[in-house]
Design goal:
57% of the residues lie in helices and 19% in strands. It has 236 residues and is α+β, with helices and mostly antiparallel strands. It has a 4-stranded antiparallel β-sheet with strand order 1-2-4-3, covered by helices on one side. Strand 3 and strand 4 form a beta hairpin. The chain is rod-shaped.
């Protein structure tokens, strides 16, 4: 049988044209939606990057501020250390390294130091002592002249020395050497007792002394004491 199409060709072409236009319109919508989504995604990423950049800049600013504060603290620390060293030089008539070197130089053979303590104390008030002679009156006048010194400069340095010695002879020799030194006076023995170390018997002693307030060491004296201390350490 012969198929007879009663639909006009114009109608068929119009339908095909509408379908084509609809497909193009759908494709256009899809493309526009894709472009819009890409644009929105790019904007979101840009904002996220901008937020991260702002956060990094904020952290960098805080770190820069912290570094500046650290540098300022270092400068203040150096100034404080310089002030402390200057104050220590003013308060200590003899540097502690020189005092330790002197104590080491006077060690007899076989004697070693165990502990060393330095204490600065204010001098005792002697105002209650009555003046009964012209000589004592003159001494009292000299003492009153020293009152012009600051309280820091009038401090007395007390020294406590602990050590080990083979016998009391070395302890007595050490006391004699310290008494004859130019840095100390009033050297006294506090205690000396027997102490066993492994199979040997030693004397554990404790001394007290005072640093002379009128000591003035020259650069040559300091170098001599330090040089002698180096030799003592190597020979010890």
């Amino acid at each position: 049988m012969v198929n007879i199409n009663f639909v006009p060709d114009d109608y068929i072409q119009n339908n095909e044209s509408k379908r084509t236009n609809l497909m193009y319109l759908i494709l256009l919508v899809v493309v526009m939606a894709a472009l819009g989504g890409s644009f929105v995604t790019i904007k979101i990423r840009q904002r996220a990057c901008q937020a991260k950049e702002n956060l990094v800049n904020s952290r960098m600013a805080k770190m820069h501020e912290a570094i500046q504060q650290f540098d300022e603290l270092q400068v203040k620390k150096r100034a404080m250390m310089k002030t402390a060293l200057t104050t220590a030089e003013l308060l200590e008539p003899v540097p502690r390294s020189i005092l330790l070197a002197s104590l080491t130089n006077n060690l007899p053979s076989g004697v070693s130091l165990v502990n060393l303590t330095l204490l600065q104390k204010a001098p005792k008030n002697n105002s209650r002592v009555t003046v009964s002679s012209k000589y004592q009156t003159a001494q009292a006048g000299n003492t009153s002249g020293n009152s012009k010194l600051s309280p820091e400069q009038m401090l007395e340095t007390h020294i406590e020395i602990e050590g080990m010695a083979p016998s009391d002879l070395q302890v007595a020799s050490y006391i004699e050497r310290l008494s004859n030194s130019t840095l100390m006076h009033n050297v006294a023995l506090v205690e000396s007792k027997e102490h066993k170390i492994d199979d040997g018997i030693f004397r554990q002693f404790k001394l007290t002394a005072m640093l002379k307030n009128d000591v003035h060491l020259t650069k040559k004296d300091v170098e001599s004491i330090r040089k002698q201390a180096e030799g003592t350490i190597w020979n010890f």
